[in-house]
Amino acid sequence: MGLSAPSSPAKSDTFRERDSLVVAAAYAAGAAVAAAAVAIGVGLAAYGWKDVAWVLSAAGSQSVLRALGMTAIIVITALPVTVSVALFAAAAANDTSIGGITGPAVRESIQWSSGIPPVVVGLAVFFCTIVVRGDQAVVAAVAALVLLNLPNAAARLAQAFGTVPRDAREAAAAVGASPTASYFALVQPAAAWAVAAAVFSLAAQMVGETSAVAVAVSASDAPEPLSVQIWHYASNISMAGTEAAACIVLVATIAMLTGVARACARRNIGATR
Amino acid sequence: MSEGRGPAVETKLETTGLHVWFGDRHALRGVTLSLLAGKTVAFIGAAGSGKTALLRSFNRLHDLDPRARMHGSVKLDGAEILGRGIDVLALRRRVGMVFTRPTLIAISIFDNVAFGLRAKGVADRLALEERCERALRRAVLWETVSAKLDRPATELSMEQQQRLCVARALALEPEVMLFDDPTAALDPVAGLALEEVIMPLRRDFTVLIATNNLEQAARLSDTTCYLANGEVVESGETPLVFSRPSDRRTEDFLAGRPPGQP
Amino acid sequence: MARPWERLFIALARLCAWCVILTPFGVISVIVIAAVAGQQQPDRVVFLGNLVVELFATLFVAIAAALAGASIGVGSGLLTRELLSARAARPFMLACDLLSAFPAVVLGWFGALLVLPALAGQAALAVFVGATVVVTIAVIPRSYSIASRLLGTVDAEVRASAAAAGAGPARIAAHVTLPAVRPRVVGIYLDAFSRAVGEAAAVTVVFLAAARAGYPVALFTIPSTIMTHARTAQIIDAGIAQAALAVLALAAISKTVASRRIGDVRWV
Fold it and tell me: Quick check: A260 contacting B, CB < 8 Å?
């Protein structure tokens, strides 16, 4: 077999064209992201900046401070429950010596269960509150947040524990450390910053969660958390300014928690290097 | 491998029909071996021949891998170590292991050496210090690190880190030491320096070393065992295996020839 | 042998693991029981017909948003990780970080206040386009995050050898990095679909704002119907539970396939 002229008409080489196409598409995507972020940021600032101080000091049923307090109560209650259960579950998922058959089962479960839409979780809690005739908004909201975030939290924490190299675990086992001893002496300290990052990022997610909480507390007339309160009034264009101000407060809270999570994640990267 | 050594030398480790699978991969295929106490055994063979799988069978490290399955018999001092009801943690304290790459499991130098002792339940600081010093001396590291035991172990060179891993295993005063190609990650000079650490250990322990370095196997071991495709092809006294291998496959491997070529 | 506290720890770990495993089944069981044994509202006898139409509306918004959002996310990931220097990439990364800090209600507010008026005159279609825009923005940060991590899994030595062969960043991105992760990129689209199909809060705000502004909108997506209906109904509505099951199936299946496609990428 030697080289012979191709029988079909020669095709032009699209090697360079593909370069240009990929570069153009990537820049267009970057521009779209920047445009969206700037548009929302500028929109919020333009409509709501001057009202931030006012909404924070306003009283009554639409008080942002009261709603933020409600958010804090719900998140501060839901977060430790979620994190505690997820920490243990992540330990089981991460090491079959600890988890036994539950280890692979948890890993399999979190692959799909984190895809359950928040509104569906909220609906399940709402139905339960109707059955038990409860109107405890805090309990319903906490339940919704715990159920919604448990798979996600377990996945994140299992990944945090996974940042500890397998070699190190084997070395610990080789000197007779039990799985539990390895977990406390090796895995937990090494993954501490990663766990902190996961916890703060989870808190940010809980603060911003709307649909699960809104549906879960539907049976109650109690004060609502900030995200749900904004959801109630956001469609009313005549309240655009005050809602934008409330949105700024919510975004600032989430950004602060996300920032702490990122700082922790950076320290984790530094620690594992 | 006990053939010809006389009845005075007792068998330390014994495997009978040992099979190991990783998922669908059959890593060890019915290995039967008898390893004598106080001897140094080198396992040689191509990559994937089952050297590491065999070493890890002696301290049940396969238990950590959910895909791994073991079948057959492994005896330490005549007592079965496979199967349920075995105290695996106690077994691993009797059978120490050093891995291919230095594996640091704590921040400070001292905490690394003391890790196994603390896991065993030794809480007395004086006892810990005394045993750590002894282990570091045996690993020829004490002079280098005695003044900086609280410093991070990552500050040590690769070769010093590997010696630290030897010290960590020695701190538990094991009966058997497993070395899984311990010089593979080191440069030749550092590798030879580590061999100098291993050499005197041969007097006090049963040493099993898996290595890809044939010269190292010849220098360190009393007996050599050649593995191919998860099977023991040949085992015997090291000078004999290297000078007059009885199996053609061993001869090919030692000569660096592809199997079956003239 | 394990000490008592170690046994207690292992028992607790397994118990909590079972909690995580059974939680989604608990949620699904409640919805299934409600779908079977809940009340059938007289004014929703044509619910199944509505469900089919709402399902189409949901799929329209979710597919369009997933395609756009995942493409933008992957493109941005390529831009910041492969094409730009760390310094030049920083503004784009900051923009992605900023987008990820906007919760769904803020996106809804943005859609109602700024996107809908910009699309005025297009009647009902404008509402769906507006909803699609906000859902697209909602899925971008996650798609970007996964894409960045996927691109990070490509061996640095492969890039280095391409660079040694004289390839620039654009060529490496187009011919080395992107082809290397292409099979897993499909997972990003599926993940984006899973996120988009369940989006309720932002879409509801857009639909409600459109209704207030006089757009001829009688149809919502399924998640937004659930969100608005739960508050007004105050009963265990079998129809709503059936609709929730449809969304749940779509989201969970696409999420499962996405997870398998994407494989293991570090989040923390």
Answer: no
Judge whether A53 is closer than 8 Å to chain C, CB to CB. Answer: no
Task: Give the Å distances, CA to CA, from C58 to A77, B120, C119, C130.
Answer: 34, 59, 20, 13
- Binary contact (A113, C24; C-beta < 8 A): yes
d(CA B216, CA B194): 11
CA C211/CA A174 separation, integer angstroms:
67
Of A83, A102, A161, A110, residue with least CA distance to C14: A102
Query: At A151, which CATH number?
Result: 1.10.3720.10
pLDDT at position C111 over 70: yes
Q: CB of A92 within 8 A of CB of A188?
A: no
Q: Give one DSSP letter per residue of C33-51, joined into a string.
A: HHHHHSB--GGGTTHHHHH
Mean pLDDT of C135-156: 92
What is d(CA C126, CA C124) in angstroms, rounded to the nearest whole number? 5
- Give me the amino acid identity at B198: I
Asked if the model's pLDDT at residue C53 lies above 70, the reply is: yes
| Segments forming the whole domain that contains residue A155 | 52-272
Site of tokens 């391409």: C162
Q: Provide the domain count of chain A.
A: 1
- How many Å lie between the alpha carbon of A169 and the closest alpha carbon of chain B? 8
Distance of CA C234 to the CA centre of its chain: 28
Chain C residues with CB-CB distance to A235 below 8 A: 108, 112, 204-206, 208-209, 212
In a domain, A88, yes or no: yes
| A71: amino acid identity, one letter | T
Residues of chain A with pLDDT under 50: 1-5, 7, 272-273
Q: Is A13 on the interface with B (CB under 8 A)?
A: no
Structurally, chain C folds into a number of domains equal to 1
Q: Is residue A122 part of a domain?
A: yes
Residue C31: pLDDT above 80? yes
* CATH number for position C128: 1.10.3720.10
The amino acid sitting at C132 is T
Q: Is B152 helix (H, G, I), strand (E, B) or coil?
A: strand
CA distance B12 to A20: 68
The pLDDT of residue C49 is: 60
The pLDDT tens digits along chain B (262 residues) read 444 444 456 899 999 999 999 988 999 999 999 999 999 999 999 998 999 999 999 999 888 887 889 999 999 999 999 988 888 888 999 999 999 988 887 778 998 899 888 888 888 889 999 999 999 999 999 999 999 999 989 899 999 999 999 999 999 999 999 999 999 989 999 999 999 999 999 888 999 999 999 999 999 999 999 999 999 999 999 999 999 999 999 999 998 887 766 6
Chain-centre distance for alpha carbon A270:
23
Q: Which domain holds residue C115?
A: 48-262
B258 or C15, higher pLDDT: C15
Tokens, residue C84: 């730009």
Give domain B11-255's CATH number out of 2.40.50.140, 3.40.120.10, 3.40.50.300, 3.30.450.20.
3.40.50.300
A204: distance to nearest CA of chain B, Å? 31
Say which of A32, A115, A198 has its CB closest to residue C254.
Answer: A115
Task: Quote the pLDDT of residue B6.
Answer: 42
Which among A104, A167, A175 is the nearest to B168, CB-wise? A175
Return the structure tokens found at B255. Answer: 């000569």
Which of A47, A198, A234 minimises the CB distance to C205? A234
Of the candidates C174, C186, C175, which has an alpha carbon nearest to the alpha carbon of residue C150?
Answer: C186
| B62 neighbors B70 (Cβ within 8 angstroms) | yes
Partners of A104 on chain B (C-beta within 8 Å) are 66
Residue type, B40: T
